[in-house]
Specification:
By secondary structure, the protein is of the alpha/beta class. The protein has 8 helices and 6 strands, in the order αααβαβααβαβαββ. A hairpin with a 2-residue loop joins β5 and β6. The structure holds adenosine-5'-triphosphate and magnesium ion.
Length: 178
């Protein structure tokens, strides 16, 4: 078995270095990448608790701070039929959200909407849906913290709890109980 200890090694460098065992090395790198993901236990617990108490939870934070990874970790802990993921940077998901009421109303469980700052027109629909059904929760992810807060604070007032994710620590910036 070939052991690769430098996980930041680019695949091309690896190819040059380990030409004859390239495919084995790639498999090893993939394994290392998989196991290197840090479970953000505290943040996962916070997400779970907030989603129990609020119809909408907004996970905010700067680019690349780990919002999508955290929401994927959260989703993996749940039954696939009770998690629905939409990414507003994916044109296929945007097409599905063309009529948000029709797309979201039938869903049960947790609906995750990533990069929501790109589709602020979803907020009025979320407000209606949040009031409608106790078995459906929304986890919305956004990179434009201040903009998102100003948009949501009016439309979703009293329905949303904000979590700000920064690096590998999180803190509450606002918590609006039911
Ligand atoms: N818990 C983690 N353990 C290991 N790596 C992580 C973890 N969370 C995030 N990363 C890494 O950090 C990078 C950014 O993560 P991610 O895409 O989740 O951030 P993001 O906040 O959603 O970024 P963006 O705002 O650009 O969408 C990725 O390369 C990801 O693999
Ligand atoms: Mg992301």
């Amino acid at each position: 078995m070939l052991h690769v200890y430098c996980t930041n090694l680019h695949h091309l460098q690896l190819h040059k270095l380990l030409n004859h065992e390239f495919s084995v090395a790639i498999a090893e790198i993939s394994w290392l990448n998989t196991t290197m993901e840090i479970q953000r236990t505290k943040e996962l617990r916070m997400l779970r608790d907030r989603l129990q108490e609020n119809p909408v939870v907004a996970l905010l934070g700067p680019r690349q701070c780990g919002k999508t990874t955290l929401s994927n970790q959260f989703a993996k802990k749940r039954s696939a039929s009770l998690v629905h993921i939409f990414d507003c940077e994916d044109s296929r998901d945007l097409a599905r959200l063309y009529n948000p009421m029709m797309a979201l109303e039938p869903l049960k469980g947790v609906v995750i909407i990533d990069e929501i700052q790109r589709r602020p027109e979803l907020f009025p629909a979320l407000r209606v849906l949040a009031d409608q059904n106790q078995s459906r929760r929304f986890l919305i992810l956004g990179s434009a913290s201040r903009d998102l807060i100003s948009q949501t604070s009016e439309t979703l007032a009293g329905r949303v709890s904000f979590i700000e994710l920064g690096g590998f620590a999180s803190k509450t910036v606002q918590h609006t109980p039911n």
